[in-house]
Structures are given as structure tokens and as C-alpha cells.
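Cont'd.
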Amino acid sequence: MSKLRVLSGIQPSGKLTLGNYIGAMKNFVALQHEHDCFFMVVDLHAVTVPQEPAALREQSEAVAALFVAAGLDPAHAAIFMQSHVSAHAELGWLMTTLSYMGELERMTQFKDKSEGKEAIGAGLFVYPSLMAADILLYNTNLVPVGDDQKQHLELTRDLAGRFNYRFGETFVIPEPYIPKVGARIMSLDDGTKKMSKSSPNAGSYIALLDTPDEIRKKIARAKTDTGRDIVFDAQNKPEISNLMSIYAQCSGQSLEQIQAAYEGQGYGAFKKDLAEVVVGALAPLQAKYNEIRSSGAIGEILQAGAERASAVAEQTLAKVKEAMGFLPPVRRRKG
Ligand code: TYM
């Protein structure tokens, strides 16, 4: 396969979870050696709901450090902050002008996040237009994401097609890249809800930086379906199926291998082993995270990443503005 352009982003809102890791970051790491990769911390998206400035700063650095701790190599992949590349905000506005109210209203993430709120920020509403800009700026072919971002990807494809139709062939139409197992890791206290870093109940998710004891406790308390068999059946046994997906993604074993290994054993034995599998999978990431945070290297990594990203993004933005009919600025000749 020839080299493809890959881009994705993670919001610095709350602690990253095992869902973020399995649904997205693991694939970031897997794709970085074969493809031309850009991974960013989407801080402009994080302010679509009220944020506390000090927390945003801390979480932004923490997510960038987790990218590296999870195995992203800044020599291969550009790692950067969305707000460091101003083309995102600018193309975000242009994509907003191309978006319809009706299609934005249909986004399930918007419906979930705005439900029951009296004041809904306009930024939350146009969030997917900014996400489309993120992707389209880089002529992206593949976008590694979890299942919950599929709808946003579809809208991105629609907006790219709409732009190309109105203003001429400009954007590459991107494809989602979603894992076969673990595309939607579910909450530990409710197998019908997505595991989420913004949940008020810390027992419902495993944070990537949870201690081994916290992980053991959370898995021991995780809700399980009635019965005792370790079989994968997402429809009828969502909770044990979710735990099996986590086991598979953290151990490298297939669901069939896990099912065979635990035949005749109950949930108790399975959960005990699962806890050790998760603790073992996260231990190297946690060690590397602490190393990177104390080294102070993140600032330089982000600066180099933003320079690489800007070079590509600025070119696309110039093409877009020309296609849309903006008068180009006059460049003064030197000397
Ligand atoms: P965010 O920050 O909510 O989540 C980051 C990534 O983690 C995946 N994910 C999950 N995967 C499986 N199971 C789960 N429980 C789970 N929870 C989260 C998400 O699907 C996502 O891939 N809108 C995006 C951020 C974004 C972006 C982009 C992504 C902004 N611009 C451009 C790709 C390309 C978001 O809110 O992700």
C-alpha cells in the first residue's frame, strides 16, 4: 500500500480512558510507521463546553504526553495542539458557512451534550464543522476513531463533497478507520452506555493513569450480565462482551481464544485475570508518561509538530480561499 495521510484528534477534557486508548490511540500507534501521520490535541473543541483555564492547560499537556507514552514517536508522527495551527479556526469558520442547521441538529453527540441544558453554546452546535476542517486541512485519507465519531465523519465527507461540487475539486474525501473489536468500549456500570471520560462516576471508566489497585477494584465491581458463561454476545450479554473486548485488545488474544480459555469458568476468575491483563497493558504507558512529564520535553515536541502541521494546513487553506473567491493579499516584494 502506498503511504496514506492519517489524522486524528482527542479532546483534552477529563482523564483519557481505556475507551480512548482501544478505540483510537492504539490505532494511531499502529499506523504511524506505514503512513504519514498527524495527531492533535483538540483544545478548540474542548472549549465548546465551559472549561476551567488551569485544568485545560494541565489536561492539554497530559494528553500530549499520553500520546507519546502510548507509543507515538514524534520523529514519525506530527503531534500538536489544534490551537497552535490557526488554519483550523479559519477553515472551521468556512466549513460552518457550508453546513446546514438541519444536519448539525441531527448529530447525536450534539443531542447528548445539549440535552437538558438551558444555555447551549453555539460552539457546541458547530463542533462538527470544525472537526471537518481539522480533517480536510491535511488531505486526509484515513481517520482512526471509535464508533461514536462515525456520524461526524459522514458529515465531513458530505461537506467535502459539497465544497468540491460548488467550488471545484479541492478536498480529499476521508474514510473512517475503526477497530473491529472495541470500537465502542462500554461503561463498567452500564453495558448500554459508552465508557466516557466525562462521566461523573469514576467507577464507570478505567482511566489510563489509574493505579493498579484502582483498576483491580473497578473491574471487580464492574457490572456483569445474568448467567456465568464467558461468551461474546453483544446483543444479549453486553456487559461480559464488553469485558471480553477489553481483554482481547489488552492481551492481543482473539475473542474465540478467550472464550475457549474460560470455558466452564465463572465471571469471578475471568475478572481477576482481566484486571491483571489491563494492569500489565497500562504499566509501560504509565511509566513512560511519568518520564515524559518530568523531562519537560512536551513543549518542543508540540512546537515541532505544529510547524509540520502548519506547512500542510496553510497550503490547503490558501487553495480553499482561492477556490471560494477570496481576494488574495498582495505580497510586497522585498528590497
Ligand atoms: P473524543 O476526545 O471524545 O475521543 C477521542 C477518541 O476516542 C474514541 N473513543 C472511544 N472509542 C471506543 N470506546 C469508547 N468508549 C470511546 N470513547 C472515546 C473516540 O471515538 C475518538 O476517536 N470529535 C472528536 C475529536 C476530534 C477529532 C477531530 C477526531 C476533533 N477533531 C478530527 C478525529 C479527527 C472527539 O470528541 O473525540
